[in-house]
Write a structure and sequence with these properties.
By secondary structure, the protein is of the alpha+beta class. The chain is 37% helix and 21% strand. The protein is globular and about 65 Å long. The chain binds adenosine-5'-triphosphate and magnesium ion (MG). Essential protein required during embryogenesis and all plant development stages, probably through a chromatin-mediated regulation of gene expression.
Length: 361
């Protein structure tokens, strides 16, 4: 049986049997509904629904919910049989705390009885997906932005940077602005997220963004409940926040300046390779106009080498930037398990959860 690869993000879980150059078989929301049963069943309102996010800002925070989610994914969706569990490879965000790594490996061996385990960093895997072992990833997901320079398959941890902002904050920002421009309309946050994915965009530069103040195409959108809203400049504000974080109330440099600073803090013999292999990944980078704006700002950089973006190979699926960590995981799974570089049940029984720091790096 092929190993299963899992990239559990703050919004989307990508999972499937390792098959290089393909999209994951399963992409589903990580958010779960917990139904709480009241003792008094007589009343129809005895069922209450709560939503639970097992993963927040990239890290597992609710282990019971995570176990339930993985159970559903592995047995119900991917067809594992109890007693015949296979091998599994997890993607890990930057700077995953040691305790989180240990808890995951422990849960997989003790509660799922997996026959083998491996974990690898999302930045490294995203580069594998485009056939590289060196480069710098800018991963803008739902809960976080990770900028990670990677040389020869190893992350420069000291030079890497994690920001605790992501798509979820852009959704909030859009909600605030839409509420202001459509004061009579009550929009559910999940609808705002859909609007963001459909309409949000980036102006080509700061001047073009300023001009959206004077003129901007007006879109009219009917919500599922029949309410009608208009979207104008809000769509540009969302994209601009990545380049001007002050829009989000943050005193930070924009995304391109952050990238340049990260690479510049690595020793200089690596600069050319890192600057010339910048990879944009994570769902938020698929925002309309983002890549063009990023490249435009990169062209204006005063560093001696200008950042240039990796073009994904043509044979790869269109969704590559959204699923690159999973896809790289599928490539790696085809190497680590056949070559016995993974953690086996015997390794785990002998060494316990701390084995993960020895075998997976
Ligand atoms: N076209 C789009 N424009 C803007 N945002 C988008 C677009 N498509 C997807 N997104 C956003 O991308 C995010 C999901 O991306 P991704 O799957 O990379 O995140 P994740 O892996 O679940 O989270 P993380 O890696 O941060 O833990 C969501 O916030 C989603 O709204
Ligand atoms: Mg992710």
């Amino acid at each position: 049986m092929e190993a299963v690869v899992i990239d559990a993000g703050s919004k989307l879980l990508k999972a499937g049997f390792a098959a290089p150059d393909q999209d994951p078989a399963l992409v589903m929301p990580t958010r779960m509904k917990r139904v709480v049963e009241d003792v008094d069943m007589a009343d129809a309102s005895a069922f209450e629904e709560f939503t639970v996010d097992p993963v927040a800002r990239g890290f597992v925070k609710d282990w019971d919910a995570m176990e339930g989610l993985l159970h559903h994914v592995l047995y119900a969706c991917l067809g594992w049989e109890i007693g015949e569990e296979g091998q599994v490879l997890f993607t890990e965000p930057l700077s995953t705390p040691k305790a989180v790594r240990e808890q995951l490996v422990q849960m997989m061996f003790e509660n799922f009885n997996v026959s083998g385990f491996y974990a690898s960093e999302q930045a490294v895997l995203s580069l594998y997906a485009v056939g590289r072992i060196s480069g710098c990833t800018v991963d803008i997901g739902h809960g976080k932005i990770d900028i990670a320079p990677v040389s020869e398959g190893a992350v420069h941890h000291i030079a890497s940077k994690r920001f605790g902002i992501g798509g979820v904050d852009l959704t909030e920002l859009l909600a605030q602005h839409l509420q202001r421009s459509n004061p009579l309309v009550n929009i559910d946050i999940s609808e705002v997220e859909k609007l963001k994915e459909r309409y949000a965009c980036c102006a080509e530069d700061e001047t073009a963004y300023e001009e959206t103040q004077n003129s901007c195409k007006k879109e009219t959108h009917t919500l599922p409940d029949g309410q009608v809203i208009t979207i104008e400049r809000e769509r540009y504000i969302v994209g601009e926040a990545l380049f001007q974080p002050s829009i989000l109330g943050l005193e930070e440099y924009g995304i391109v300046e952050q990238l340049v600073r990260c690479i510049s803090s690595v020793s200089s013999e690596n600069h050319r390779q890192l600057f010339e292999n910048v990879m944009l990944c994570g769902g938020t980078t698929s925002m309309s106009g983002f890549e063009e704006r990023f490249q435009n700002e990169a062209n204006l950089c005063c560093s001696s080498i200008r950042p240039s973006l990796v073009k994904p190979p043509e044979y790869m699926p269109e969704n590559l930037p959204k699923n690159s960590a999973w896809m790289g995981g599928a490539i790696l799974a085809k190497v680590v398990f056949p070559q016995n570089q993974h953690i086996t049940k015997a390794d785990y029984d002998e060494m316990g959860p701390a084995i993960v720091h020895k075998k997976c790096f």
